[in-house]
UniProtKB/TrEMBL annotation, chains A, B:
Residue intervals of the Cyclic nucleotide-binding domain: 14-118
PANTHER family per the UniProt record, alphabetical: CRP FAMILY TRANSCRIPTIONAL REGULATORY PROTEIN, LISTERIOLYSIN REGULATORY PROTEIN
Species: Microvirga thermotolerans
InterPro entries registered for this protein in UniProt: cNMP-bd_dom (IPR000595), cNMP-bd_dom_sf (IPR018490), Env_Response_Regulators (IPR050397), HTH_CRP (IPR012318), RmlC-like_jellyroll (IPR014710), WH-like_DNA-bd_sf (IPR036388), WH_DNA-bd_sf (IPR036390)
CDD domains assigned to the protein according to its UniProt record, in alphabetical order: CAP_ED, HTH_CRP
A GO cellular-component term linked to this record: cytosol
GO MF term list: DNA binding; DNA-binding transcription factor activity
Pfam families per UniProt: cNMP_binding, HTH_Crp_2
Domain HTH crp-type, residue spans: 148-221
Name of this chain's protein: Cyclic nucleotide-binding domain-containing protein
DNA sequence: CGGATACTTGAGCAATATCAACCGACGTGG
DNA sequence: CCACGTCGGTTGATATTGCTCAAGTATCCG
């Protein structure tokens, strides 16, 4: 008994349909880990000895190129499986996951993955679906990077972020974790400078409101139509 | 009994470890389909009513953007699972798969996927691994598109193609299916014109040998070092 | 208050897309 | 079997996006 409560995970997609006994058995193997903002949960190219379910917080998952450039692969939120390298047949992590805000996750030893599949027959399906969704996202980004120009990519990225992590505030929709221009640049395949210029231009039109590591989207539909290719003429 | 022989699939990764009885049961539900060069096996946004294992040939899997631009998502070869939208939790195909050469595949109704998982316990793992490998590839391409310039991307794409589909010929390694400059452009996120110019430049140096829908790589190590960032100075 | 970190902005330039024209190979039908 | 049409490819000129370099300004935190 590790002192973790079933209610922590019962409602999460990966554990859907599991009974109390299974949940307890699963939790029995789990260890809960805390990461302060900025520290990393796992690191690229290190042995993938654990996999995780994020309970609380937000992770910025990045990959580093041989020549030292960083690319944001995705942002992960509560309830998501992360670091499931084993399940995907790898023995090292393909990316680094850093806490964008103070975060809590459950961790299991990678070696336990097969047993967990036995314990939770639905887990394989859930993992496949999660992998499918990520694959679909990745392909969408490839298409975007291949065909769209920077301003449209930034617009799309912000719209997606506002959908998954947005919080309604007075002036619009706030992207609810500290995100720098650099982060946006690394997520859209451009430079800090371009993102800054683009956001400044939008802010001038009242479409967004910026701040230090802070973005509020005031006119979401403007960004959406921009992302769909309608030119950014004033209006 | 559909008249298909176990030996067709026994050696393929998705069916690894299955016994003769299982293989027969699986084949019993399968239908074999033939696609002439240029015709499509499944189409983007259509209901995903079948999934496939490619037995022979090569597929060009593409995605079309709303504004009509095409992007090559991947090339698939013999033994690969394709069109597994169901497994990934989708009910339409996310892309179009066209035969790059005359091709043969086995097809199962999507509705049979759950039963097949029951019949072949290893299939879920194989599918997860395949999805993981594709996810990894997709992320690599995102990183590439985000950070590398066109010439390097083209070099990397050709190296990868030569590794997966290359055939040793007198002058070097031939990419063993008809591939146009346009295809390469759509696979690397650039234009036909740039690819043509780049290949012409390389041909001048004797690194590749081009032809109509034909590419032979004469000096693979040159392209590899180019792809890893060493400048394309003569040598 | 001082250092560090994030952000802004401008100028110049390189990479790459676009536009335009042309060439040549393949294959099909007369 | 040849002529011609189509498709794939080449090449040049031009336009433009977006990157790099270079300061300089806010904001946060200890």
């Amino acid at each position: 008994m590790s002192g973790l409560d079933r209610s922590l995970i019962a409602a999460l997609p990966p554990f859907a349909g599991a009974g109390p006994a299974q949940l307890d058995a699963v939790l029995d193997e789990a260890r809960s880990v805390y990461r302060a903002r900025g520290s990393s949960l796992y690191e690229q190219d290190k042995p993938a000895d654990s996999f995780f379910v994020l309970l609380h917080g937000r992770l910025r998952v990045t990959r580093l190129t041989p020549d030292g450039r960083q690319v944001v692969v995705r942002f992960a939120g509560p309830g998501e499986l992360v670091g499931v390298a084993v399940a995907l047949g790898r023995d090292t992590y393909p990316a680094t996951a850093a806490a964008a805000v103070d975060s809590v996750a459950l961790a299991w030893p990678s070696a336990r993955w097969p047993q967990m599949l036995g314990l939770l027959p639905a887990l394989a399906g859930a993992a496949l679906q999660a992998a499918g969704a990520r694959l679909h996202d990745a392909h969408s980004r490839i298409v975007e990077l291949s065909t769209e120009q920077v301003e449209r990519r930034v617009a799309n990225a912000l719209v997606r972020l506002s959908e998954t992590t947005g919080r309604r505030v007075e002036q619009g929709i706030l992207i609810d974790f500290p995100i720098s221009r650099q982060d946006v640049a690394e997520a859209t395949g451009t430079t800090l400078h371009n993102v800054s210029r683009i956001l400044s231009a939008w802010e001038e039109r009242g479409w967004v409101k910026g701040g230090r590591q802070r973005i509020v989207i005031c006119e979401p539909h403007r960004l959406m139509s921009l992302g769909e290719g309608y030119p950014a003429n004033r209006g």
